[in-house]
Carbohydrate kinase PfkB domain-containing protein
Amino acid sequence: MAGRSELVVSFGEMLIDFREFMFYRNPSADMLLTHAELNVELIKRAAVFHYGSISLIAEPCRSAHLRAMEIAKEAGALLSYDPNLREALWPSREEARTKILSIWDQADIVKVSEVELEFLTGIDSVEDDVVMKLWRPTMKLLLVTLGDQGCKYYARDFRGAVPSYKVQQVDTTGAGDAFVGALLRRIVQDPSSLQDQKKLEEAIKFANACGAITATKKGAIPSLPTEVEVLKLMEMLEAWKYCDAVMLLVRDIQCSLIAISIVLVAEI
């Protein structure tokens, strides 16, 4: 691609409760990737092949993307799909929806945000019946991230929700990437978590913590946490939950004692 491509330039605008991205591609190097330029041996060694939808927009990159998926699948890798919707890059909403869903059935793991859920289903809801419109029998796991509300998960034999870790948000850029990257790492470490609800929830808690820490700092890459930082946050917040539970128990006991005292006084 040397000598015939440019770098993609992106701009992000961050305001309170608002985030917008702008891109300049005329075209950029990523759009010009061909299947002949794929590092086939690297793809074959991968435990997970994770991809988005932006590379589906134009040729020759689209064909390279599809070929890379085929190679990874044939080599036994998990296919992980995060659409990472960027409407401004697509010719139209209709084309975006069609092409994003064109490879839906091939993924083992899919992660969507609540915004992407509405975009793909046309329904402004995160209820189970809406989410299940995106479920496919070939999937092993479907995730819906809900920002500071945590995420919902759907596996073949069980489903549930895992709350987030409450933090002071500064910049949510990269939080979703941190979440899915951390979760995939845990799944690779223990693939049985896809069939074990307790293990999966523990993996999602770890991923939630990664996403939460990322949102406390500016920038998508500099904000990514280390494993030590993640475990420290989890331990600290779990300790706070324990303290809160103890305080609630003490309050309940105090209320019970007051009620008993009132009854005794009334009887006297």
About this structure: Residues 46-240 form a domain with the UDP-N-acetylmuramoyl-L-alanine:D-glutamate ligase fold (CATH 3.40.1190.20). The first helix runs from residue 40 to 45.
